[in-house]
Amino acid sequence: MASLKDLIRQAQDIRVQDDVEIPEWAPGARFRVCGLPSGDWEAYQNSLTKMTRRDSATGVEMTIRSRKAEIVAKSLRDQDTDELVFPDLREGISILSGRSAGIVNGLFELVRHLSDDDKDFTQKVRDAEGNSDGDQS
To answer: What share of the chain is helix, strand, coil (3-state, %, to 5)?
Structure first.
């Protein structure tokens, strides 16, 4: 029997959505959108806010940055080959940054959903309990 560590390592727990159509970009093409692993999602969350201190007289300045194009570039795949649409992340960010905000935001929200970031902790616990096939002890 495999150890718990090995079971976790082998788990296929990153959700995907197939058959995503973006007719404005590629009529008839089907994309696969993948959720992000925990490390990538945390890196994204940690990068959103950057705090800098100007000086003691003016206090702290907070800058909020959006990196939705980066998240979409990391998550968008060719459904037929499962290859990243943008293997060069910088190029993908550059291209997506010039596309429709509505489409990029919609794809971002889908990645967020597939990464389970749109649920609060209580909902995640309920979902995990519902997926358990063992007896409660």
So the answer is: 45, 20, 35
**Structural domain span for residue 105:** 16-118
Confidence (pTM): 0.74
**Rounded Cα distance, 33 and 14, in Å:** 11
pLDDT in tens, 8-21: 999 988 999 999 99
Task: Give the C-alpha separation, 69 to 75, whole Å.
Answer: 10
With vertex at residue 46, the alpha carbon angle to CA 42 and CA 49, rounded to the nearest 5 degrees, is 150
Model confidence at 54, pLDDT cuts 50, 70, 90, reads low
Percent of the chain with pLDDT over 90: 56
Q: How many domains does the chain have?
A: 1
Is 126 a domain residue? Answer: no
Does residue 9 form part of some domain?
A: no
Identify the DSSP state of 51.
Answer: E
